Automatic annotation (TrEMBL):
Transmembrane segments: none annotated. This is V-type proton ATPase subunit C. It comes from Ameca splendens. CDD domains: V-ATPase_C. The keyword NAD does not apply. V-ATPase is a heteromultimeric enzyme made up of two complexes: the ATP-hydrolytic V1 complex and the proton translocation V0 complex. The V1 complex consists of three catalytic AB heterodimers that form a heterohexamer, three peripheral stalks each consisting of EG heterodimers, one central rotor including subunits D and F, and the regulatory subunits C and H. The proton translocation complex V0 consists of the proton transport subunit a, a ring of proteolipid subunits c9c'', rotary subunit d, subunits e and f, and two accessory subunits. Subunit of the V1 complex of vacuolar(H+)-ATPase (V-ATPase), a multisubunit enzyme composed of a peripheral complex (V1) that hydrolyzes ATP and a membrane integral complex (V0) that translocates protons. V-ATPase is responsible for acidifying and maintaining the pH of intracellular compartments and in some cell types, is targeted to the plasma membrane, where it is responsible for acidifying the extracellular environment. Subunit C is necessary for the assembly of the catalytic sector of the enzyme and is likely to have a specific function in its catalytic activity. Gene3D superfamilies: 3.30.70.100, subunit c (vma5p) of the yeast v-atpase, domain 2 (1.20.1460.10), Vacuolar atp synthase subunit c, domain 1 (3.30.70.1180).
């Protein structure tokens, strides 16, 4: 009995440890994948922006600006005047959805802060973006996806190996309980036969009722139960 409890306790500890590690990995991946969706102000731009969309040199840089649909015309007319160091006609729409679009604009690096401040005044949102950083995030997601798949397979195989052992231990405890309760209820010498009946959930309740009715004469507490039911019924009626 003690060996069974120790074995089950060790399995439970290992199960909790494996489940915690897997759920932590899953949560980390979900957090990163969450950024792949969402609105234009929060979603990842890795699958939208290509390296050739960006102009990056010693003096020039490209900013990505979120513009709502109703401000498209305002953006086209005003972006060149948000700073005197904006490259003329450099804006290009690289993506749009139902709410708005993402426009690129090229300017001198020295004017980035001024441009961001003026853009904010006009309700244009400049997205912080680095192609290399986004690429590293994408690689991390791919790596975690593969790792999660591997860990899921290992976890499932561990469950398949250990579940039968837990089930066997549970059946063993059930058998011990049947023996002990039979001795306590019917006394010695031991004279009984144990059976294992298999049924589905829909019929389990009916089976218990049938067995209780069939062997009610062997239950010394049955008469007391019936007496309590009769007393309760009389109390209700009177």
């Amino acid at each position: 009995m003690l060996n069974i409890l120790q074995e089950i306790s060790q399995m439970e500890t290992e199960l909790r440890s494996r489940a915690t590690a897997y759920n932590s990995l899953k949560a980390t991946l979900q957090s990163l994948e969450h950024n792949l969706n969402g609105n234009l102000q929060t979603r990842s731009l890795n699958d939208i922006v290509r390296k050739e969309d960006l102009v990056v040199s010693e003096y020039l840089t490209t900013l990505l600006v979120v513009v709502s649909r109703e401000k498209y015309l305002q953006w086209e007319k005003s972006y060149e005047f948000l700073s005197e160091f904006v490259v003329p006609r450099s804006s290009r729409k690289i993506f749009e959805d139902g709410d708005g679009g993402i426009f690129s604009v090229t300017l001198f690096k020295r004017a980035v802060c001024e441009f961001k401040a003026k853009a904010q005044e006009s309700k244009f949102i400049v997205r912080e973006y680095s192609f290399d950083v986004e690429e590293r995030k994408h690689q991390e997601i791919m790596k975690l996806t593969v790792h999660k798949k591997e860990q899921h397979g290992i976890f499932v195989r561990w469950l398949k190996v250990n579940f039968p052992q837990v089930f066997f231990a549970w059946i063993h405890l059930k058998a011990l309980r049947v023996f002990v309760e039979s001795v306590l209820r019917y006394g010695l010498p031991v004279n009984y036969q144990a059976f294992l009946l298999e049924t589905d959930k829909k019929r389990s309740k009916k089976l218990k009722e049938e067995l209780s009715s069939l062997f009610v004469h062997l239950d010394p507490t049955a008469s007391m139960k019936e007496a309590r039911k009769l007393t309760l019924l009389l109390n209700i009626l009177f």
